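tool_call: predict_structure(chain=1)
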Amino acid sequence: MMEQAKTDLETNMRDHVAGLAKGVAGMVPVVGPIVAEVVNNIIPNQRIDRISRFVVILEEKVKEINREIIEMKIRDEYFIDLLEDGFILASRAITDQRKEYIATIIKNSITEEALSHLEEKKILSIFSELNDAEIIILQSHALTGEEQRLYFSHHKEIIQGKLVDLGSSDMEINKDAIHGSFTQNLVALNLLAPQYVRPRRNELPEFDEKTGMMKARGYRVTILGNLLLSYLDLKTSF
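tool_result:
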C-alpha cells in the first residue's frame, strides 16, 4: 500500500514538473524553451524520489494528529514556510533516516506550541548543519548508565572513531581529523559544551595536542542540544 502510494506520488510529481516546463515554454516563446530544458534537467529523478519518499514518511508521522489541527496548520503561511524548508532538505537527504529526522521536526512543529516560527526554523537550520554521525554523537552524550553503554557498543566506530598512533598511516590520521571535527562542530553550534578539570594549585592545565586548546575531560549536552534532540524524538539528558 505504502509502496504504491510512493509510486503514484512520484508519477504525479514528474507529470507536474513536465507540465510546468511546457507552460513556461508557451508563455515566453523566446526564452521559454531554454527555461523548460533547464527545469527538466536540474530536477533529476533521484530528487523526486527523495521528496516523494519524504512525503510518505511525513504522512505516517502525522496521521494520528487531529485532522483539524493539520488543516489549520496548512493554512498558516509560517508553517508552509517551514514545510518548504523541509522539502528542500528532503530533496538532498540520501538516507531514509535523515528523511525521518526532517519529517519528525515538521511533525513536532505541528503539535508543539512552545516555539515561535523563527525558533522552529532555527531548529531545522541547525539540523541541516549536522550529518548523521554528529547526531549519533550528540545522542550518545545525552544517555547514561547501561543505556549509554549499549548505545556506544552499537555505534562504537562512529562515536569513538579509530584510534591513531605514531604508526598510523596518513589516511588513518586524515580520517581521525575528520572524526574530531564532528564533536568540534557540535560545540561550535552550541549543542555540546566541553567540561574541564580544574588544575591543582601551581599546576598548568592539560592541553590537547591536536587542537592546542585546553583539554576537555568530557562534554555535556546543552539546553539547545536537548531541544534539538526532543524535536527529533530522541532521548534528552533532562
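agent: Residues 193 and 220 are 5 Å apart (CA to CA). Proceeding to next step.
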